[in-house]
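Note to self: keep these together.
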Amino acid sequence: NDIQTILYLINSMPILLQIISTTNTMNTNKVKDICVWTIGNMLSFNDNSITIIAMKNGTFFSILNYLYITIIEFQNNNNVNNISNNNRNDIVNRLTTLLWTLCNIIKSNKYTEIDNNNDIIITITSVFNFHNKAIDNTVLSRYLNPIFNILVLYTNDNVLHEKLCYEVIWITVYLLTYNNTIVNNLLYNTNLVHCLNSLISYFRINFDSTNNISTNYTIEMLNNNLLLLPLIRSIGNILSGSNEWSELFLSNNNNEN
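Structure:
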């Protein structure tokens, strides 16, 4: 709550974003990762002035773009058999930090619509309302679908992808608390419903017909799983909405299973 500290943070925001966005070879991925982590910590303060400055400086799209580039790198490395474990772990850690920071952006930005001078700023709400068709196509196909697809990756390698999947589900939880227009676009115009149901199917196959834990899962493993709570909250957020949302989700769930 120290004003001087907040001013330091606000003044550093454009510099951090410039480092993240630059292709300068001096700014290695490790340096960029620390900048992303710093921004994520700033936004975790839930200070309205920091959030406003972050959005005015293009934090949302800067993080999304770096996240997209890192996801592509992660996918390419997953298709290479001789990639070192250290390199793969570095990318997983970078992705985890990016997803955590994106989650903080979405969580802190929900109620930030105007700044102190009543100037309209680009908020998560305005971005996801998709009044502009170009924004619609860019955000949906280029950015959101690869993020949600990480939920499907978990079903193939739950050890490697658990941290990533955990952050993605919390992003989903917070996005599904936004206004009906945004949720409608997420449910009908992204792969979110399919990806959530793929994850549900993964957990379902670990139970037998009598609802006992199968040999694939112990009670302790299930209780300690990080994904179940946010997954159930995401489902609850969808089912608490309109009948159309529930029907869409449940019909897809039936198709998946």
